[in-house]
UniProtKB/TrEMBL annotation:
Protein name: DL-endopeptidase inhibitor IseA family protein
Record lineage: Bacteria, Bacillati, Bacillota, Bacilli, Bacillales
UniProt xrefs under Gene3D superfamilies: 3.10.450.420
Organism superkingdom: Bacteria
UniProt xrefs under InterPro entries: Endopep_inhib, TA_system-associated_sf
């Protein structure tokens, strides 16, 4: 074919294309566009699908957590690494079966992570897990979903899930990935509860109660199984080993850090005099117990100072009308939540109108019973004897000089006039006295000790 013929052929093609009616071209383009749109729509992740996948994941996770669906006499346990394990039921007791079941909702990589996170192991050819109960109060089918962000091939959503029979809701972040046209969307990262970095009164009480429970638990040595309680002599004292669940540093720290920061847990172990002896943790033999009902406490926000938030926690005392006030400090631990950062201590900012020292002197010459009531019951101080020969007392000044976690020391300046035959420790004129005061109930304080400061 010569050059001019090629030109004619090309021209002819162009003419041929242009000769197709415009309406026919439009129909062809419209059909192609519809196919593209339909394919895009198939790949689109709807809010309904987001919730359906999350709900299905929760159902599958709960099923696995309870071990599956056991047939008659199929449930079997064994001891491994000091823990009681149970085999999974026959429908999911091999890795192939379990992965196939999980991949109904998860991408393959996340199924591996799921199995690892749940501590599922293979033992004598079958899958097993630590014995535990399954179940959840979260109503995933009633959740609402909100798009958060797109990260490479993953879409992240925030699901707000109602908690059964309450007005509470919990937020979870879940990631989704489009696998292919045949498989569609799957969960690429299982639900992670979104922890708020804002502490609430409820969280303050819950964490303080956990701290108090941990204190009692460790103080009692833990929870001993039959025949496990053993003692030994060490440095002239009788020690006992801690129970099996907390008898190593790693186990004890893991338990304590559910309610307190790592630094506080380390200090806690020191304060309790816990030692390692022949490879196990032990403590001096002692009893634990408390009448303080931390789980029924109320909390009042005080202040936030740098990384620490301070709360006043008011704790009822069991079988009484009394309450005790504590100051509790909290810090936020990344990816964990709020934890107690200091051993709770008594509220020692004593208002002037309830300070027992002021009340003592205001009533000293008027009503001895009221003045005597300002001392702790074990005090041997006798108000009636003390006031003999005192004609007049003028309260001048009260200054806090020192405090610790349990009491405050005050220096009190008074002007005294005494009778000529007075035989007490005071002198005419200015006198200074030292008092230690400690809490004895809700907004109630008592004098523990009293002393005279020698002015000369």
């Amino acid at each position: 074919m010569n050059r001019s013929a090629k030109k004619l052929l090309i021209t002819g093609l162009i003419i041929g294309l242009l000769s197709v009616p415009f309406s026919q071209n439009s129909n062809v383009l419209a059909k192609e566009q519809t196919k593209v749109e339909q394919k895009a729509k198939q790949n689109e992740l709807s809010t309904k699908k987001v919730i359906e996948l999350a709900n299905e994941f929760n159902r599958i996770a709960s099923y696995i957590q309870q071990g599956g669906d056991y047939k008659n006499e199929e449930y079997k346990t064994f001891t491994y690494d000091k823990k009681t394990y149970r085999y999974l039921s026959s429908s999911i007791d091999t890795k192939k079966e379990l992965k196939a079941y999980l991949e109904k909702v998860l991408v393959p990589a996340e199924t591996e992570q799921f199995i690892k996170n749940r501590g599922i192991i293979e033992y004598k050819g079958k899958l097993a897990q630590v014995e535990a109960d399954g179940g959840s109060l979260l109503q995933w089918e009633k959740a609402t979903a909100q798009f958060v962000k797109k990260d490479k091939n993953n879409l992240q959503y925030r699901l707000t899930v109602p908690v059964w029979n309450t007005n509470e809701k919990q937020n979870y972040l879940i990631e989704y990935q489009f696998v292919n046209n045949k498989i569609g969307w799957k969960i690429s990262k299982e639900p992670i509860q979104e922890k708020s970095t804002a502490i609430t009164d409820k969280v303050a009480v819950e964490q303080a109660a956990k701290f108090a429970q941990a204190t009692l638990y460790v103080q009692a040595g833990g929870e001993y199984t039959p025949g496990e309680y053993k003692t030994f002599l060490h440095n002239g004292s009788t020690y006992r080993y801690l129970s099996g669940k907390i008898d190593t540093k790693a186990e004890l720290m893991s338990y304590l850090m559910q309610s307190m920061t790592q630094a506080t847990a380390e200090q806690f172990i020191k304060d309790f005099g816990i030692v390692e002896y022949k490879g196990k943790l032990a403590q001096v033999e002692a009893d634990g117990g408390s009448l303080a009902q931390w789980n029924k406490a109320t909390a009042e926000f005080i202040k936030k100072d740098k990384n620490t938030t301070f709360y006043r926690v008011i704790v009822p005392i069991e079988n009484t009308n009394e309450k005790q006030i504590y100051i509790v400090e909290y810090q936020y631990v990344e990816n964990v939540g709020w934890r107690v950062s200091k051993n709770p201590y008594w509220e020692l900012d004593i208002p002037g109108n309830v300070n027992p020292i002021s009340i003592l002197f205001n009533y000293l010459l008027i009503d001895s019973k009221v003045s005597q009531n300002q001392f702790l019951p074990h005090s041997t101080f006798n108000v009636t004897e003390f006031k003999k020969g005192i004609k007049k007392v003028e309260f001048i000044k009260l200054t806090e000089t020192e405090r610790n976690n349990s009491q405050v020391e005050f220096l009190v300046t008074i002007n005294v006039e005494v009778e000529h035959n007075y035989k007490g420790p005071l002198t005419n004129g200015i006198n200074k006295m030292l008092f230690t005061v400690q809490p004895s109930g809700y907004m109630e304080y008592k004098i523990d000790k009293i002393g005279i400061v020698n002015m000369y």
